[in-house]
Task: structure prediction
Amino acid sequence: MSSALQKTQPGSNDPILTFGASTVFIGRNGGKFPYGNSVLVQGSEEAVIIDPSKSLKSHVDQLPKIDRILLSHCHQDHVAGVHQFPEASCHAHEKEVYAIQSMDGICELHGVPADERAEFESDVVKHFSFTPRLDTVGYKDGDIFDLGGGVTIEVIYTPGHTHGHSCLLVRGEHRKDDLLFLADIELSGFGPYYGGVNSSLEQFDQSLDLVRSIDVPWFCTFHHLGVLDKEAFLKRSAQYQGMIGYREKKLLDYMATPRTIDQAVQHRIIYRKSDVGASNDRSEHWMLTQHVARMLKSEQLKEVEPGFYQAC
Ligand SMILES: [Zn+2]
Result:
């Protein structure tokens, strides 16, 4: 990361990286959930914060006056710092604005069942300071925020993780500092997460093709990795996208004899066997349901009797 200016705040070990107009605040524990990496973008007219995380709290005193908050999507960890900027306008993809406007909205986005609702509500308030913003404005693919002085942020709509998930492309005075904020295209070893009620495997796969075609020198994830140069991004994103095929291969092996999706969920194809619990079961179920549909279409699987699938 030779062209990045790196420093840390006194009393904190969390790095702060600067790329021209962008400043990346690496989250606590390296941006591991529930924390995350937030980006401050400063033009001559405006300052914008992208995905204010829970750990941004320790940097608030260092920030300039924030004019806008841009949310890549509205999962609880990405909106945890919204309450710190009540004066700033708040923006999210038009398909996901509802999720930051009310408690009902964030519960709907997270697919919280009725019997888990009280616990979820208490958790998002206590641990993520969830504060609804009824005045949130919707953005759409291709919208450009002009911050002045040649600094812009362009919306690159990348659904799949959620139905409103968007990457944000920061361009400034010098091309060498341009940065694509990947949000929860997080490039982890686990692979893409499309296990939420508003997630889509098909769209995630297409979004990965799209971001891999964008030619910028820097890429930033919300969790784990932080900032990568283009070479590292292309390598990691190929491995990450490859997890989709790896999961399908595992499923095909498991379905060498006829099995139901419920049996595959209990067996675990995507999560580890030790990842127990109703929420992991639900995610595994939805992810496998999408894989089965895709593999029926490509004739890798066939339905041998109602609800039982077998490799062709
Ligand atoms: Zn997310």
Summary: The chain has a mean pLDDT of 95.
